[in-house]
Design goal:
Length: about 450
Amino acid sequence: MAAYDIDPQPTMPTDIVSDDSVARSRATHRAIETVFRMERARIVAALTRFTRSVDLAEELAQDALIAALRNWPVSGIPDKPGAWLITSARRRAIDHFRRAKMANGKLALLGIDADVEAMAEPEDGMGDDMLGLMFVSCHPVLSADARAALTLRLVGGLTTEEIARAYLVSEAAMAQRIIRAKRTLSDACVPFEVPAGQDRADRLSSVLEVLYLVFNEGYSATRGDDWMRPQLCQEAMRLGRMLALLAPNDTEVHGLVALMEIQASRLPARTDADGKPILLLDQIRSRWDHLLINRGLAALAKAEAMQQPGPYTLQAAIAACHARAHAAEQTNWPRIAALYAALAALAPSPVIELNRAMALAMAFGPAAGLELADQLMLEPALRNYHLLPSVRADLLMKLGRLGEALGEFERAAALTQNERERAMLVERAQACRAELAGKAK
């Protein structure tokens, strides 16, 4: 059986629509679409645990949708539509195993009674099912890109077309990426489970990494014509909130939720009417989403109350410093520099050091930041990272070293793959050139 994507607007079977019931059928059709979009991830999670196959779970979910399209316009939408869909799909799973002459062995292997009516209620263990699906889709056996795509597909419920559009690749290429990811999981015999102990902690870090990878791609797109892709931010936050409900005692889960909520609060202020980027210190803070800020600060309070903060919690604390400042000049830059120092000690990274350089510059002057940024020029990981010359250019410009700043702005523009960011860097280079020309007169 081949897996395929769920059509976001399935075709209504013509044999169930009569002339005098078209309006009712269309209304039911729209309701079914809504229910399925809301319940899809939970259905696939339950079916994956039941069948031990992501491919089969997705196909059975599609079969259940078709059954709903045929039955609900006649019988009405059931009180528990998600449970109805899961039960319908489970019946089809057993029929599939029987038809394949695997019923006895497969059902025994799964520990499932052949009598469908004797099964547990579909809602039982649903939270564990969803958490299990997250751990499967974010398994370290997959590449980071594959984990992100599969998580958006299975847990986020996005179609392959939507994911491809968000990542600016063809639908065919994204479909192949998802197919390869499923095949890799199958070949590696990855179990459907919520791991325990240290294994859970190790695997959870992979889940958090994927969610933040998705969020960051939405917050600052690596390529393309748009600086941001808000849909990806929204999906990452939705999955993060879901994870916080499923794993309420994990500090870093709340830390990541806090970080994403606070960062996302700036999205409305990060571009002008023409889509041009607006840097943090130039943003109109009244345009920030204060509901998201409050949600983020509440999640940060939960994380900080639990235990020693981890990397996501420290980053959320840095974001909170910006969120609490009503104006850019009120920002507590010494506090931010100290938090970056703590973050660098906990999770050493050249990118963190680059951010620390900017914080030092804001707290203690551009020369202090440039000293650290200059040291990072020897880092191989930052050799082609456009933000290093961008940061150096900004600091050099503030120090009046315009010739050097011009070269760094041009280098940064050449390295970035995002058209909006390139245009901004070219504009800053031109401003630098104009200032140089003015001084030469």
